[in-house]
Design a protein that fits this description.
9 helices, alpha/beta
């Protein structure tokens, strides 16, 4: 079984003392047997640092068979953001869109965000939302966006956070295009709860590495009482399907 981590980060921003290299991530992956990881940067684009995506793509090029870039964006830039996503999908073959609303202070159900998320859906790209206990990242707020973006796959990271797991589950039960990632949630029982409520096909293994330890994140899933088939869906098959990885060839669609 090839384990897929649907939530990790790579970036080097000296001004903030962030130095998380692809080699660092690959080392963490190898330590616990992760075959593939989604990787996004820490800086939003468009923004003051327009080199963030170029830097990410260049850094992962030697590992492109294992690392799958999600472009992290700021919807405040309106049509410029939509155009950038379109160009990034064509030029860099990015595999998804990452949004962290608390970092750009815009409600997820704003029209600017809806336009960007709808474009992602048209391009066949899943959208990974930071979803937790901070204002502008609450599950029910993201649910209002999902209602207006039925053709886009939306992933709620962190299972809604420590205090909003129930709301994340409510949103996932309402909309079939919503997936959940297991990263950073401090408890084991919600993993079993989500699998029972929405099925194992829409639960994704994630680590939020290198912020979180992949060994710990994987152990949580192992302790959740999943059947072997459920475990394989959560940790492997679901991620491979969303990323377009050929299970036999071990490569992503271009």
């Amino acid at each position: 079984m090839k384990i897929v981590d649907m939530h990790a980060h790579i970036d080097s921003v000296e001004a903030f003392n962030w130095v998380d290299t692809p080699e660092k991530l690959i080392g963490l992956m190898d330590e616990c047997g992760i075959a593939y990881s989604v990787a996004s940067a820490y800086m939003n684009i468009p923004g003051p640092d327009m080199t963030a995506l170029d830097r990410l793509i260049a850094s992962i090029e030697p590992y492109r068979h294992r690392l799958f870039p999600f472009v992290r964006m700021d919807p405040w830039y309106g049509q410029a953001a939509v155009d950038f996503l379109t160009a990034a999908a064509r030029r860099f073959h990015v595999n998804g869109l990452k949004l962290h609303p608390t970092t750009y202070a815009l409600h997820p159900y704003s029209q600017l965000t809806i336009n960007l998320v709808r474009r992602a859906g048209e391009l066949g790209l899943p959208v990974l939302f930071h979803c937790g206990d901070e204002m502008m990242s609450y599950p029910l707020q993201i649910g209002e966006l999902v209602r207006k973006c039925p053709d886009t796959t939306v992933i709620l990271a962190h299972m809604g956070g420590l205090f909003h797991t129930r709301d994340a589950l409510t949103v996932a039960e309402m909309f079939d295009n919503v997936y959940i990632d297991t990263s950073e949630i401090p408890h084991v029982f919600p993993i079993r709860q989500f699998v029972d409520a929405i099925g194992p096909e829409r639960v994704l293994f994630g680590t939020d590495a290198p912020y979180c330890d992949p060994l710990v994140e994987l152990e949580k899933v192992k302790l959740a009482g999943l059947t072997p088939d459920e475990y394989e869906l959560v940790c492997s098959k679901n991620g491979m399907r969303l990323l377009g990885i050929d299970a036999n060839a071990g490569e992503a669609r271009s």
